[in-house]
């Protein structure tokens, strides 16, 4: 089995990052490293779509801060020892295959059996028609690491008001 | 504005698992940079492997083992939002591992098993339809090696590509062809470094029914074909003929000790005489025992860059100086030994309790990427003893009890 990998950089039409972040070396993508993980409550897998996680302040790139809920994290920019290639998966579903045409089955065959077989057949064909391709979309050389303990803050709105004050 | 809102991607389900991070060795970095510059959308890398194997990443000429390294931290992949690129970024994926690439040797050993029973031998033309088949394209998809490594591997293993199918040539038949080539060079009074290809190929086809496709491939293994002339690699041809002779004196290895009842070793002097006879008067001077362990001579001798010549050695024979009758030789091929390092050393030390450094080296070249890694293997699996005559290696473990 071969999985081809092509180099397809994020093209010119894709949105660009704010200049302070783009200084990290890439204008279309960046990495943040966190201790622990984002824990999201909720049962539906789509319910978190587009929801706010927190605010990243990049006024001073020597000391970026991240506010998530009542926690303030202080981070730093780290140059990676080895550059990281960012791979992005593309799944193609080919429609030119024979999947639309069902195999002819003689009439006297057991109905349930036929359905079951047909379903299996379709799934198999669906898998076969799915072509997975991975693209190198970016090479990243720096990341923002938040490795310190989060500091509790009384009012999460305080950073926002500071932003306005500027 | 220096505040950025971080939000989940608008399509989390579709994005989750769609990103991976790969640590890039510097060669790959350059490769990617040059692909970005030239704007090629052709795949430049590929991940290869059967679901049961460890995956490898291949470039056009190199091979890397792919390993996943688990991180205790989370890495977020963020991209700017389409609607508000200056103020909002989206977390596209959360990753807990990074893929690591380690240079590795091409895994060509599978070929010999896959191609079992597909040998090409004399008078084989009629059998062709009934044989099991394995195509070059199949090998390209299944063998964990880059394209150029696969090509070199096929040549080293003397595998013909006939109508797109892989057919290892029978050693005896190969020897016949080579000896005939040497004979015709003499009888047609051709010079060996610029022989017309057509004359030789036609002579072999007309007088000995050797198909043109086969002889051209054999000639390209043992020299270079340019503008219809063949520049023969004398050393390679001579070496292959020597191997053909010594192959009859194979060392039989059984559990616990070496017995050579069936195949007696051959005296070195006797072997050299036979070898010189086989190559004929003209090429007699090229006969040299060390030739037998030079790996893929066409690559070394024709390398355009002088400093680039690295002679890789691959073990093919064993020399025994302790015999009462004189120095004897046995056929003993590294290619037939296990590929796993521990098993390889077990077999080597069962065959010979102690080895000189330059004796054991040719038997390790095909399982290590470079000299450094070979020395690491030696350090791990063998014990070195330094004596005035040089370094000897013995087993770390008692294999005999």
From TrEMBL, chain A:
<keyword id="KW-0235">DNA replication</keyword>
<protein>
    <submittedName>
        <fullName>Ctf8-domain-containing protein</fullName>
    </submittedName>
</protein>
<keyword id="KW-0131">Cell cycle</keyword>
<dbReference type="GO" id="GO:0003677">
    <property type="term" value="F:DNA binding"/>
</dbReference>
<dbReference type="GO" id="GO:0006260">
    <property type="term" value="P:DNA replication"/>
</dbReference>
<dbReference type="GO" id="GO:0031390">
    <property type="term" value="C:Ctf18 RFC-like complex"/>
</dbReference>
<keyword id="KW-0539">Nucleus</keyword>
<keyword id="KW-0238">DNA-binding</keyword>
<dbReference type="Pfam" id="PF09696">
    <property type="entry name" value="Ctf8"/>
</dbReference>
<dbReference type="InterPro" id="IPR018607">
    <property type="entry name" value="Ctf8"/>
</dbReference>
<dbReference type="GO" id="GO:0007064">
    <property type="term" value="P:mitotic sister chromatid cohesion"/>
</dbReference>
<comment type="similarity">
    <text>Belongs to the CTF8 family.</text>
</comment>
UniProtKB/TrEMBL annotation, chain B:
<dbReference type="GO" id="GO:0006260">
    <property type="term" value="P:DNA replication"/>
</dbReference>
<dbReference type="GO" id="GO:0000775">
    <property type="term" value="C:chromosome, centromeric region"/>
</dbReference>
<keyword id="KW-0235">DNA replication</keyword>
<dbReference type="Pfam" id="PF09724">
    <property type="entry name" value="Dcc1"/>
</dbReference>
<protein>
    <submittedName>
        <fullName>Sister chromatid cohesion protein Dcc1</fullName>
    </submittedName>
</protein>
<dbReference type="GO" id="GO:0034088">
    <property type="term" value="P:maintenance of mitotic sister chromatid cohesion"/>
</dbReference>
<dbReference type="InterPro" id="IPR019128">
    <property type="entry name" value="Dcc1"/>
</dbReference>
<dbReference type="GO" id="GO:0031390">
    <property type="term" value="C:Ctf18 RFC-like complex"/>
</dbReference>
<comment type="similarity">
    <text>Belongs to the DCC1 family.</text>
</comment>
<dbReference type="GO" id="GO:0000785">
    <property type="term" value="C:chromatin"/>
</dbReference>
């Amino acid at each position: 089995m071969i999985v081809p990998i092509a180099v397809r950089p994020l093209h010119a039409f894709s949105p660009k990052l704010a200049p302070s972040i783009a200084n990290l070396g890439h204008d279309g993508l960046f990495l943040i490293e966190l201790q622990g993980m984002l824990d999201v409550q909720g049962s539906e897998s789509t319910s978190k779509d587009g929801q706010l996680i927190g605010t990243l302040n990049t006024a001073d790139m020597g000391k970026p801060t991240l506010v998530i809920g009542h926690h303030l994290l202080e981070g730093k920019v780290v140059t990676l020892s080895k550059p990281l290639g960012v791979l992005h998966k593309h799944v193609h579903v080919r429609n030119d295959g024979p999947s639309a045409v069902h195999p002819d089955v003689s009439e006297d065959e057991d109905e349930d059996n036929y359905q079951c077989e047909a379903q299996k057949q379709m799934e198999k064909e669906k898998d076969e028609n799915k072509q997975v391709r991975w693209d190198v979309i970016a090479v990243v050389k720096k990341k923002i690491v938040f490795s310190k303990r989060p500091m509790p803050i009384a009012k999460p709105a305080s950073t926002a008001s500071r932003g306005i004050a500027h | 504005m220096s505040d950025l809102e971080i939000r989940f991607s608008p399509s989390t389900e579709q994005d989750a698992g769609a990103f991976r991070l790969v640590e890039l060795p510097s060669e790959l970095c350059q490769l990617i940079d040059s692909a970005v510059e030239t704007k090629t959308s052709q795949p430049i890398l590929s991940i290869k492997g059967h679901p049961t194997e460890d995956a490898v990443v291949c470039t056009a000429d190199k091979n890397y083992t792919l390993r996943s390294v688990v991180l205790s931290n989370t890495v977020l992949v963020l991209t700017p939002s389409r609607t508000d690129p200056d103020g909002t970024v989206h977390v596209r994926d959360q990753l807990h591992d990074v893929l690591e690439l380690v240079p590795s040797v091409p895994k060509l050993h599978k070929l010999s098993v896959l191609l079992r029973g597909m040998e090409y031998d004399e008078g084989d033309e009629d059998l062709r339809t009934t044989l099991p088949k394995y195509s070059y394209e199949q090998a390209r998809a299944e063998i964990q090696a880059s394209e150029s490594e696969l090509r070199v591997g096929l040549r080293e293993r003397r595998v013909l590509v006939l109508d797109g199918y892989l057919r290892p040539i029978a050693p005896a038949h190969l020897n016949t062809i080579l000896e005939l080539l040497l004979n015709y060079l003499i009888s047609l009074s051709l010079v060996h470094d610029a022989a017309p290809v057509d004359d030789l190929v036609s002579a072999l086809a007309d007088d000995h029914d050797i198909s043109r496709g086969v002889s051209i491939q054999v000639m390209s293994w043992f020299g270079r074909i340019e503008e219809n002339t063949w520049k023969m690699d004398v050393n390679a041809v001579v070496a292959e003929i020597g191997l053909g002779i010594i192959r009859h004196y194979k060392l039989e290895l059984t559990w616990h000790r070496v017995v050579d009842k069936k195949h007696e070793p051959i005296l070195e002097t006797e072997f050299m005489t036979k070898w010189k006879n086989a190559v004929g008067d003209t090429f007699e001077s090229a006969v040299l025992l060390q030739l037998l362990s030079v790996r893929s001579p066409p690559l070394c001798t024709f390398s355009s860059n002088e400093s680039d010549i690295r002679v890789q050695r691959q073990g093919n024979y064993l020399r025994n100086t302790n015999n009462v009758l004189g120095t004897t030789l046995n056929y003993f091929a590294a290619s037939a030994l296990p590929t796993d390092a521990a098993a390889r050393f077990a077999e080597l030390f069962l065959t010979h309790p102690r080895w000189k450094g330059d004796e054991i080296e040719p038997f390790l070249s095909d399982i290590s990427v470079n000299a450094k890694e070979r020395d690491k293997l030696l350090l791990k699996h063998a014990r070195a003893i330094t004596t005035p005559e040089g370094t000897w290696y013995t087993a770390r473990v008692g294999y005999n009890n």
